[in-house]
Amino acid sequence: MSSVVTPKMLRPGAETAARPPAQRRRRKPLATRAYKVFRVVALIVIVLSFLAPLAWMFLASLKTNVDIYDASKTLIFEPTTANYETVLGRNNYLSFVFNSFWVAFASTALSLIIGVPAAYSMSRFAMRRSALVVLMARIIPGVSLLVPWYYVFSNLSMVGGYTVLILSHMFVALPLIVYILMSYYDSMPLELEEAARVDGLTHIGAFLKVTLPLSMAGIATASILAFIFSWNNFMFALVLSGADTKTLPVAIFNFVAYASIDWGGLMAASVVVTIPIMVIALFTQKYIVSGLTAGATKG
């Protein structure tokens, strides 16, 4: 004869012993919500910490130098476009924009022509010593090379031209491209190339027809980052450029004088420099992320 257990037949301590798991289940959603709120607040603080300088730069570019120093006109002021007229009109900044674009484009293109096969060779043939040399080139600070570079290029009568700027920017772009693509090629399976070679392709043919098309995301990522680094480079252009080959970062430096700083013009010129990079990053961010993450895993 089966017996039915009723709530009255339970031990006195059984009901109280069953409460803690229920309480833990009630506390868990509270802890999860608190963590989500904390994460959102932390992300907002981080985003604002990056956006605040950009917002201040843009607002300052629309102010006079007197309004910039006036704390009461931080947000409420009478905007003016005089700074942009000075930058784009009187200082011939469009030529500086062309110089920056040409140097960045040429240095990136030449670095890709050299860096793509170099990265593939180092990845497939385990040329770790060559990779170490590229790493050393990446680690060595560029400022330590300015004096010997200036001495060599001045003796060759190259200082002040586009060629010396392109070569110096390749010193930054080439190691970056090689190391990004090395990790990308390391993650690609060898079976694809082996299958292509079984079909009759040579090693170079397998690279050109199989590996290279599959690595376009990594190449796009490396080229975008190299272009951005070259566009923002100030040190090489300051020493090696001439009056007709100044890039935008050097042209901005003209607003800094010995006795004073034209903050309005400086901020307007900074906006002119920043906008192209922000547009490039905005439209290519998914390619940058996919290219960097694709080489993060093996196989």
Automatic annotation (TrEMBL):
Assigned GO CC terms = plasma membrane
Key words of the record: Cell membrane, Membrane, Transmembrane, Transmembrane helix, Transport
What InterPro entries does the record tag this protein with? BP-dep_ABC_trans_perm (IPR050901), MetI-like (IPR000515), MetI-like_sf (IPR035906)
Membrane-spanning segments: 37-59, 101-120, 132-152, 164-185, 206-231, 263-283
Annotated compartments: Cell membrane
Q: Name one Pfam family in it.
A: BPD_transp_1
Q: Which residues form the ABC transmembrane type-1 domain?
A: 97-284
Please state what the protein is called. Carbohydrate ABC transporter membrane protein 2, CUT1 family
